[in-house]
Structures are given as C-alpha cells and as structure tokens.
What we know:
This protein has helices at residues 2-29, 39-49, 80-83, 88-105, 109-137, 141-178, 187-224, and strands spanning 57-61, 68-70, 75-79. The protein has one domain. By secondary structure, the chain is mainly alpha-helical. The chain has seven helices and three strands, in the order ααβββααααα.
Amino acid sequence: MGYLFFILPALLISMYAQYKVKSTFTKYSQVRSAYGRTGADVAANLLRLNGLGNKVGIEPIRGELTDNYDPRSQVLHLSESVYGNNSIAAIGVAAHEVGHAIQHNQQYAPMQLRHAIVPVANFASAASFPILLVGMLINSLNLILFGVILFSAVVLFHVVTLPVEFNASNRAVLQLSQAGLISNEEVPLVKKVLGAAAMTYLAATLMAIANLLYYVMIFMGGRDE
Length: 225
C-alpha cells in the first residue's frame, strides 16, 4: 500500500503522457505541412544551415517514435513515419533531433553531463533494485543505503534529460521558423507535437523520483526500528 501511495500518481501521469504523445503524433501525422517537405528533407536543410551538413548523417530506422540522435556516430535516425513523411508531426520530430545535433556541436552543458553519466545510470538502473531487495531481505541498512545512492544516479539522469529535451524542442521551433520551413500558422501545431513528446520525459522523471522517495522511506523506516 505504501508503494502505491508513492507510485500511483506518477504512474497515472505516465499513462496519460503515453496516450497524449501517441494521439497527438497520430493526429498531426495526418496534417500535411504547408511546404510539403519530408522529415528527412527538413533535417538535411537545418543541418546544412547550421554548418553540420557534412558532419551529421541521416538514416531511416524502423519503428514509430524511435527517432534519435547518436552523438557517438553523429547520425540522426528518423523513424519510418518521419523520414519520408511530410506531415507536421514528421517535420517537428525531425527538427527536434536536429536540435540535439546542434546541442552536441555547441557542447551544450546539460547534454554533455547526460552523456557523461549514461554508464553510471545504466549500471545503477540494473543494480539498484536487486541491491535494495537483498538489503531488505537480510535487514542490512548499509545495502539499502547503497541501493538508494545508486538509484539517485538514475534520478539524476532523468532530471538532466529534461533541459536537454526541452531545449531541443525550443531549438526545433526556432530553427523551423527562421529557415522558413513552417508558416506562422503551423508554429503552434509543431509546439503541440513536441509538447506532447516532452510530457513523456517529465512523466519518467516523476516516476523515478517517486521510486526514490519510496526507497528512502524504506531506509528511514529501517533506521527507526
């Protein structure tokens, strides 16, 4: 019951965020952009305008909403529903990923921090719960505390991700407008698409924080015994 108290609000927000991003993406995937450019075209145009045309590649990737920028290989991966699609949703998502490429090129501090803590966050995500579980089973406060500290790295990763994603979305809208790739009437539509996507990152952060608070409660409860 105690776990539900912490996790249920974040879980409901997460479910709503997933519904919102999928429904918004589906809706605006059916709205053709005024200038008819595909996601790949828009990405290539924006990369070229930012001096990254010869530095960053663009490749299609399978799936829906699987779009990402890989800073190691410096490649934009655009999903099937974005790469060759000329919808508002497609060009908004493509521009968002270009925003990440620009962040990488400009050495945007939050992005560099996120990249630096990825190995620690991956290890912490896999190891923290087993350590916490063992600590609870053998009633070891030291192991529980170690698990809590490890999971804090996961929370830090999610918190750092927020400014990275929000900044990439802001860059996307600005870049599209300045390049003349969307009309003034399309600006709020692109913002809706990217705003819905941003909710998923916020929900993931809230979920991580809720879990951390629960783990801290377990540790504090053990100290009081």
